[in-house]
Amino acid sequence: MTEFAHAMLREIYEQPDAIRRTLALYLDQHSFHAQAFAPLANWLNPRGEVLIAASGSSRHAGLAAEIILEDLCGLAVDVEYASEYACRTFANPRNPSVVVISQSGETSDTLAALRFARSTGHQTLAIANVAGSTMLREASAAMPVAAGRELAIPATKSFTCQLTALYVLALYEAQRLGTIDQAGIARMIAELEALPGRIEIQCDRWRTQTEALARKYADATTFLYLGRGVHYAMAREGALKMKEASYVHAEGYPAGELKHGPNALVSEHVPLVVIATVDADSSDSKSRYEKTVQLLEDMKKQGARVIAVANAGDRTVTALANDCIEVEPGSEHLLIIPEVIPLQLFSYFMALEHGVDVDRPRNLSKAVIEV
Questions:
Q1: What pLDDT score does 370 carry?
Q2: Domains in the chain with CATH codes
Q3: What's the predicted TM-score (pTM) here?
């Protein structure tokens, strides 16, 4: 039996079961659970316009959902910081449906955003981990996730369960709107249901590798995390985990933006973490991958220290990076779930290298209930 010195590590390992529990809320016999989706019948406005308001890790789930909902469903999606949206004094004239995402369902800024949206006549949907929380009760429609109690302040299993619920929502809307045929929906559900098992068999390898990487890169003063498309959201999340868990500064950028300023920072003590996974069946994904490979080639010539997250067996990326974390291949919009887990583990082991109480980082609390 695996021993866990901290709640954060245990909760990282609990993610396959947490995802299974979340899927069980919405899928039944490899199809959508009609009863679970009945309350969501009217959440989407007639023009398919959505605004997502969230903070922290939940906002990064929203950034991923923006691309997933647009790509799979053809919706028009914007993402705002809940703290900014809650300060508006006027309604959005487009009257989008407003989705709020929160681990606790009590986050003050996000709850204020929900209440503002309701007061101005928007349809609302809440996604939260705590059953009976205020957001789930007050929104027009609710999608609880089943991550279970999360003790560590850095969000891990609640984040991947949010991604899971948002992906299920996208598949449901794609079926309802007819943007993906039934055979395609069935294939995507099957891949989703297989995902927890695929994660389980990779966790120990990721743990061993990221522990070694943390020792190797313990001298870094800043990390720059890079990703393209939907993977940019995971770069943002990886950087946030590094900051809050280990107190090491990190920033997430779209990979194509590195040379528009941040490259000036890259040095021996400012390594890059580059997400370079690819869906071989997606032309868009392959195009983004080719651009990322070109960036890695340029960074190798520049002498940058690079940790890459890439498909298992990708010799091209392995040859260009100093270190490579391998993730089993998958479809573009689902790759984000397994690829973020080694980034969680890396931040955990970096915290240990820096002597941080990883479950209770300074100045942070689990539910932000005060503005």
A1: 41
A2: 7-193 (3.40.50.10490), 201-353 (3.40.50.10490)
A3: 0.95
